Amino acid sequence: MTVAFWCVLIAFCLTYVCTVFAKFSDGKFGARQNHDPRTFLDGLQGFAKRAHSAQLNSFEVNPAFAAAVIIADIVGNADPVTIDVLAVLFITSRMLYIICYLADWAILRSIIWFAGMGLVVSFFFVSL
User: Fold this and answer.
1) Whole-model pTM?
2) What sections of the protein cross the membrane (predicted)?
3) Which of 38, 45, 52, 102 is most deeply packed, by most CB within 10 A?
4) How many domains are contained in the chain?
């Protein structure tokens, strides 16, 4: 397994870190809320709501990242070390993105989001 493939797993795990923050940061999530967790999550405010939003964004971006890593590996034109470095940089950008989302640093979060998307696109260019 390459470092980049492990990074795909880490990206998916980061999504669930956000889920834990969203559901349990305010101490109100319990067995009763688990019967309809989407309604519970839709009613969150503040930090927990931002954690939920970070979770949703992670669910949106992870397929693109996974596809980029897999395609770069299949095409085989890119140096494996380059793919690994790009993947680690993407994970770093996602961690910073989540921190910025939780801290409510909107402008910095958006800048980091663009950088992360640029990293996803770069997998395709290094594979040419």
Assistant:
1) 0.93
2) 85-103, 110-127
3) 52
4) 1
